[in-house]
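Please fill in the sequence for the structure shown.

STRUCTURE ENCODING:
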């Protein structure tokens, strides 16, 4: 019988630093000659970050959230992927990056499906928190119910919390975030405070959860993180987050682009994509999170055409596209 692959669910709200931590994990694996496999899940139809993972075994689940619309596909595809491997190709670790609005318990449900329970062994649910946005996202004045529900489900179900982006906040704010999180999380869930997800990888890889081949060791829902599973519900799955894709035919001005992104209300939580800039040649991958725009020149050619992906609640695609065309064309 093949070994069960230790699996880690990496959750956290949009832009909190999941991919950053995943890359730290992959660097660790490379240094230590370990074979990782990765599941990447996006609610949009395109994964503009695919180039970051081009030498690794990657299973992409696009256009839906594993936690709801494509849960069945995920179970089937992951099972087929793992069972198609020869013994020597079986990965040492499986990292599953959720969409940012995923309810981790639903991914746990998928991983503990009878089809997968012999293939994977869930070790931990790692939750990334964007320290710079946490209080705002929890505020009933500046945030929506959808955002608060997703955040809460991610914090309460995690077995390891990374409080990230502490470089962007003051000590006073950090104390408020700590207090708020401590009230919500399970008592035995560790919290590590970081910038750029810089956490001791061995600590991160420690087993925090136990599942049995015959079933789950605690709770009827599949969650093994130690709390009372009857307490949480699996509703609220049809979150109204959506991703909008804008194709970008021409190079755009960097400053204008940044100003355009910053004019969006807070319901537009995350931007990412690939653009060309008027000021210099080449393709740039961009990230927009926590109201910060970051552009990185792409070192290798990409098959993807330039595009902008915006994620949020109640985004009006026609209006956004019109505003883009008016500003840049
Ligand atoms: N200032 C600061 N920026 C960070 C930190 N961690 C990550 N970032 C940046 O935040 C942006 C989003 O980070 P990602 O790792 O892509 O976030 P994510 O959670 O994978 O995003 P989604 O997949 O869209 O939900 C990137 O530009 C990162 O470089 C941090 O600790 N401090």
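FILLED IN BY: designer on duty
SEQUENCE:
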């Amino acid at each position: 019988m093949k070994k069960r692959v230790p699996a880690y669910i990496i959750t956290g709200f949009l832009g909190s630093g999941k991919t950053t931590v995943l890359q730290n994990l992959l660097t660790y694996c490379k240094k230590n000659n370990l074979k990782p496999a990765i599941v990447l899940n996006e609610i949009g139809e395109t994964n503009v970050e695919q180039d970051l993972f081009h030498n690794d075994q990657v299973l992409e689940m696009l256009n839906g959230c594993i936690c709801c619309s494509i849960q069945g596909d995920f179970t089937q595809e992951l099972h087929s992927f793992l069972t198609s491997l020869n013994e020597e190709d079986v990965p040492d670790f499986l990292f599953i990056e959720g969409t940012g609005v995923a309810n981790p318990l639903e991914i746990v449900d998928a991983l503990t499906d009878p089809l997968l329970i012999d293939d994977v062994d869930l070790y931990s649910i790692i939750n990334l928190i964007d320290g710079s946005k946490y209080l705002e996202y929890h505020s009933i004045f500046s945030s929506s119910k959808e955002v608060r529900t997703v955040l809460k489900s991610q914090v309460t179900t995690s077995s390891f919390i990374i409080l990230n982006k502490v470089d962007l906040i003051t000590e006073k704010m950090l104390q408020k975030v700590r207090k708020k999180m401590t009230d919500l999380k399970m008592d035995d869930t560790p919290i590590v405070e970081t910038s750029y997800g810089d956490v001791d990888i061995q600590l991160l890889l420690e087993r925090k959860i136990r599942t049995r081949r015959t079933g789950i060791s605690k709770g009827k829902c599949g969650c093994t993180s130690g709390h009372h599973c009857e307490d949480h519900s699996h509703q609220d799955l049809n979150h109204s987050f959506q991703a909008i894709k804008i194709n970008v035919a021409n190079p755009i001005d960097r400053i204008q682009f940044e100003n355009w992104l910053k004019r969006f209300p807070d319901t537009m939580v995350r931007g990412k994509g690939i653009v060309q800039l008027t000021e210099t040649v080449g393709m740039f991958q961009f990230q927009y999170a926590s109201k910060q725009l970051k552009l990185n020149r792409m070192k290798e050619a990409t098959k993807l055409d330039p595009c902008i992906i915006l994620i949020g609640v109640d985004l009006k695609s026609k209006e956004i596209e019109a505003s883009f065309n008016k500003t840049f064309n």
